[in-house]
């Protein structure tokens, strides 16, 4: 009989050990599932952050193009104003004032055309690679070079063309 209580204790200890092992196994499975979920969430966060970075790069490209367009628009308005000043001011102000006003406006337009290309080609720190294609740089140089030649022709016309006093 002395052995009987010891055997019962051993059996209970074995049962407790089995229950503890089952609980440990269950906890390990839960931990493994949680780790897998966390790993998936980390990948999704990384993918989400990468995508946000790409979208920010796209917005940067579009902002640079809007800035370029603003420079060209300002240059065209200044060119038109310089050419129009000659006709608008003739007979109202002296010829030297017509020539100087027109010249300053046309020179400013040439500056705007050059600044537009400069700002587009030399943007500083490059953003991450965007999804959207960029306009080829040679097109900026080509078109704005042509506009600068038009501004030069307008300047020559203002300087050597007829004014209202002639």
UniProtKB/TrEMBL annotation:
* InterPro entries membership: DUF202
Check the record and name the Pfam families matching this protein: DUF202
Q: What is the lineage of its organism?
A: Bacteria, Pseudomonadati, Pseudomonadota, Alphaproteobacteria, Hyphomicrobiales
Give the location in the cell. Endomembrane system
Species whose genome carries this gene? Microvirga arsenatis
The primary location reported for this protein is membrane
> What membrane topology term does the record carry?
Multi-pass membrane protein
User: This protein's superkingdom?
Assistant: Bacteria
Q: Where is the composition biased (Basic and acidic residues)?
A: 1-19
Protein name, entry field? DUF202 domain-containing protein
Q: Where is the DUF202 domain?
A: 59-119
In this chain, the stretch annotated as Disordered covers 1-28
Could you tell me the keywords of this UniProt record? Membrane, Transmembrane, Transmembrane helix
Report whether Chaperone shows up as a keyword of the record.
no
Transmembrane stretches, start-end: 96-118, 138-160
């Amino acid at each position: 009989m002395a052995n009987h209580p010891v055997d019962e204790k051993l059996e209970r200890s074995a049962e407790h050990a089995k229950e503890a092992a089952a609980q440990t196994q269950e906890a390990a499975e839960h931990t493994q599932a949680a780790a897998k979920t966390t790993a998936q969430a980390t990948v999704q966060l990384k993918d989400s952050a990468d995508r946000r970075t790409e979208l920010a790069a796209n917005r940067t490209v579009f902002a640079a193009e809007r800035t370029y367009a603003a420079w060209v628009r300002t240059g065209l308005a200044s060119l038109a104003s310089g050419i129009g000043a000659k006709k608008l001011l003739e007979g109202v102000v002296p010829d030297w004032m017509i020539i100087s006003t027109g010249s300053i406006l046309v020179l400013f337009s040439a500056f705007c055309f050059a600044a537009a290309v400069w700002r587009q080609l030399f943007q500083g720190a490059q953003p991450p690679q965007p999804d959207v294609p960029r306009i080829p740089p040679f097109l900026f140089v080509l078109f704005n070079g042509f506009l600068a030649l038009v501004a030069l022709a307008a300047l020559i016309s203002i300087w050597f063309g007829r004014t209202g006093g002639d």
